[in-house]
Amino acid sequence: MRFNSLAFLVFLPLFAAGYWATAGRIRLWLMLIASVVFYAWWDWRFVFLLLFSSIVDYSLGILLENENDDVKRKRLIILSVAVNLGVLGFFKYFNFFAGSAAQLTRSLGLGVSYDALKIVLPVGISFYVFKTMSYTIDVYRRTENAERDLLRFTTFVVFFPELVAGPIVRASRMLPQLRHYHRFNFERMVSGLTLIASGYVRKVAIADSIAPLVDIRFAHPEAHNALSLLIGVYLYAFQIYCDFSGYSSIAIGLARIFGFDFGINFDRPYFSRGFSEFWSRWHISLSSWLRDYLYIPLGGNRGGTLRTIRNLMLTMLLGGLWHGASWTFVAWGALHGAYLVAQRFIAPIYQRVIRVLRVPAFASNAFLVLLIFHLTCFAWIFFRASSFANAWQMLTGILHLHGMHIADIDNRGRILKCVVMVGVLLLFEAATFLPKRRKAVLAATPDARVTVSEHPLEASPAMRLVFIAACVWVVLIFGSFSGNNFIYFQF
Amino acid sequence: MRDARRASIWFAALVAVIIGGDRLLSWTLSRVLVRSQFRYSRLYRGGNDAGILILGDSRGVHSFYAPAIEELTGLRAFNASYNSMSMRIAEAVLMDYLDRNQAPKLAIIEVTSLAFEGELTSELRTYAEFSPRLSALYDEAHPSAAVAGRAFHLLNLNSGFYLEALHYMRRSDQDWINHSAMPPELRNAAPVRWRLPTPENLTALNRMIAALRNRGVEVRLVLAPYCPAPSNMGEFAQVVERSSGLPVWNYSGAVRDPEEFADTVHLNERGSRALLAMMKRDGFFGMTEHPARF
Description:
A: mainly alpha, globular, B: alpha/beta, Rossmann fold, 12 helices
């Protein structure tokens, strides 16, 4: 079931009514059953995989906690990681690796052929596998207690707002919240609805309006001039941002209404002045997961420059591969890894130059924001392209710079509409950079880190009412109601 | 309990603000829409006194370049054609035109669209507020969206047409035509077989002809040029002639130079001017009906 479907508009009030009418284990059962229905709406067969994954990690969590022998504990955690990555590997990467191996052998003249298996990718598998895997790793590290209640653990895994496209809410955050009884709270409901409304604006009005303009450019780069292709790349940067941050916002808002706090997943990433800052603002739940369960265990930035470079590259390559079984995603990860490595060398020199030339801070920051945004856009070309050939077509089409006439661009009215909406979004986000406003926002919320995109108006219920109504009007007049899937569903 | 009561009041207020704002905004935006120089805004605003009215789909748009018609005939031309416009939609547009504007001397109907069911109703819903005919067509084609549009009026203004109307706020769109020439990869396309008119569209065409004749308007049915012409255009024209009782001016193979086309089915400005000059020579713009055949 998609958040932007009619079925969900029926599902949500029914769930809410049941949720507030129940308590204790009945409420947990309701959450579990509703989440299973939400998931099964897409494909009921994969509910069993979801439950299998939950039961395996529930059992291994208890065994890990009960076991004191380090060797046996190590075996158990290896088993957990193997099962989780095995499931993910089979459903998401089997064809990719088998196909790539066959291609390699063919290029070596061995003539091995491979017919791809017809494997359906279970929606949300990358998200829930990372969630359950981090749970067993935390229990192994003894930073988290094993959950002894199967119902509660399964509810944690399948809770519908974050099930299919994140954010990846870890057990340490979610399980304690599932142990508490959440009363209906008017303030939480209003602030949750505010997040949901801003999420729908980003998804339905901005991302879905941009989608056809981007699709046609990546599908037929040869039919567009350089300026048109460049616009397509810029628009894609905002399509994916609005699509995914929109989903996150809706998920976080839904959870908030029901008393849960998921944390934040996006914090105005396109205002980043460096790539490490970008990755602390973009898909925060994934980047912090990769940091805590991959980069730091690999040694992080301890152990010298070469080891740091290796760890950064490995983390970003795997981060790229997490997004999809294609070498274009690996290339995207490699580019971001290279950016992070380059930043480590260039940043000190840049700071020295800025000091010597006495460049004002705002000018330096504006330059960095633009630079990071454009390098990010360059990487997005590989992320969005269907193949390297497609990415190459886009790049050569742009770099040849022939045909930069705006008059030759189709759908100028629709492009202008999208540009205006993105402009308004950026102005709105930039508003929180004003220190006074940011301070006020921080003071009004218990969250340690706050973003305007996820707390659009920390104001009175009346102000929020006007904000939500305005979001509804924007969706009505600018929304695309073609029922597009969220981009991150495919990951 | 207190929170639940506050929530009920807040929700009621939210619904009231959403609906009230929807009505106010849609009313304001509709006033803006009707002031535009976009063809349908002009049509529904009324008061046009064009001597020649053109109806059809995208081939009607690109074959009958209004400024060139005006140069050739000295009559004011109004091209009400639009991409993907089926004959049933054209009928509603024509009837609305006749209700609000002075009847033209000559109506040109490009009949290719007799073969298609148009997708244009979803765009023309933007003008449904001004036209019960368009509203009925939209209800029929998109029943659930029509219900949503009645609940939230802003939805009806969520269209490419509204953006077009904003774009043409200060200048007319009647000079809108392709200027580019056919890309090389399309130039060796083999002739295809065109779909024949649907009975529903033929009936709509007959009603249009009757309405125009009742107001003393000369009617010309035309098949605009293709490159290459489909193999069954003669058969297509015969079906239309049998049903309507009017001759079809079949220019489907009259223009052969690919430089005069933007693609295989649309003329560019140069092609349109060439066609119109040919039509003038053939007496097309005169008031006697005798079709040219190619």
